[in-house]
Amino acid sequence: MARLAQTHGLTDVQQEILATVRDFVDKEIIPVATELEHRDEYPQRIVDGLKELGVFGLMIPEEYGGLGESLLTYALCVEEIARGWMSVSGIINTHFIVAYMLKQHGTREQKEYFLPRMAAGETRGAFSMSEPGLGSDVSAITSKAVKDGDAYVLNGQKMWLTNGGTSTLVAVLVRSDEGHPEGTAPHKSMTTFLVEKEAGFGEVRPGLTIPGKIDKMGYKGVDTTELIMDGLRIPADRVLGGVTGRGFYQMMDGVEVGRVNVAARGCGVAQRAFELGVQYAQQRHTFGKPIAQHQAIQFKLAEMATKVEAAHAMMVNAARKKDSGERNDLEAGMAKYLASEYCKEVVEDAFRIHGGYGFSKEYEIERLYREAPMLLIGEGTAEIQKMIIGRRLLEEYRFQG
Ligand SMILES: Cc1cc2nc3c(=O)[nH]c(=O)nc-3n(C[C@H](O)[C@H](O)[C@H](O)COP(=O)(O)OP(=O)(O)OC[C@H]3O[C@@H](n4cnc5c(N)ncnc54)[C@H](O)[C@@H]3O)c2cc1C
Known about the structure:
Elements: H1 12-38, H2 44-53, H3 71-84, H4 86-105, H5 108-119, E1 125-128, E2 144-148, E3 151-162, E4 169-175, E5 190-196, E6 202-205, E7 208-210, E8 224-235, H6 247-283, E9 285-286, E10 289-290, H7 295-323, H8 329-353, H9 364-371, H10 374-377, H11 382-396
Parallel strand pairs: 1-4
Antiparallel strand pairs: 2-3, 3-8, 4-5, 6-7, 7-8, 9-10
This protein binds flavin-adenine dinucleotide (FAD).
Residues 94, 127-130, 134-137, 160-162, 216, 219, 224, 374, 377-378, 380-381, 383-384 line the site of flavin-adenine dinucleotide.
């Protein structure tokens, strides 16, 4: 039988990694995900298992103790994990973005210090751009760093940190005017600081408070928090890359690979919704036959499967483009936009196929229905993706008349 979301041209190593992760998802994640989600419980056993599999170091170079795998391998693993439970892919995602930013932009000392710990999953990453007053408009950041001797003093409030409580390293983007004259464009006066802290809530380092978990409609289990900096002192050698004023570009680079990752999550959740819908449609009978035998339901299944295939193909394309060393902002933007919209639609169709039972917490689709909307927002909303896509199209198709 032709299964959905197959990827051609994978190496033996890639196939082996994927098979291992798929097996872990089927045995260790799917059976417990809904129960843990309803209790909003952090999936510690699952995280420990993924640590053992080396998933936290998938893309970290081998010289730093990781597996040195490609973005494609990583994205395909994320797709599998999200098929099991989207929150688990969220636990890995911010870690992956911070490791990627360190690999691309860190000083040698920063890489040597952080990457081996991150590959082992001992140091766990979160990243922080958003503030209470802004998300899409990163250039409006108000949190600030001021130079004081051989350190910087950070003040301000951050919002929506995925893994804010459980992480021990946060890449924080703030404004830093030092060395940048008045009137410098906002994106040229921002700096990423590598902030180490204790895991947990409350004052996790002098001058740094993580107030507690934000109560969310879905995406439970993984902690999402605020972060308050009040005279937080960070040594100058914890400026990412050692030079101020580059933070905006570093973060955008991280978010770009993050977008492929969110697309992969959309693919995984949509696949699971399709699996649930196609199973239920063959079990539930109305008017003397399984509902799968009604053409209206078959059409729904056909539309859902087509969307799963299309999103997977675009996500794979975006990952391969990045792996080839080329710019992939257009492909990543398109993949993220399409996969998250299709995910929402496929989940809704699977929900409808379940009839009234889809509304019951006993059925997995109820959880997916609350999880899918997060993908429309995280790593840039649909409108922001369309702005990126539109701008790039006008570059590529510049009118020559
Ligand atoms: C569960 C969760 C986890 C998150 N994790 C993180 C994290 O780990 N780190 C982090 O830094 N952030 C995180 N975020 C924040 C997330 O990135 C932002 O919520 C997102 O970028 C949108 O920003 P906003 O919420 O401020 O919406 P706004 O920017 O206020 O946008 C509101 C609406 O206006 C639209 N809009 C905005 N500008 C334009 C425009 N120019 N043209 C047309 N439409 C526009 C948007 O598309 C949206 O529909 C998380 C958010 C959530 C919900």
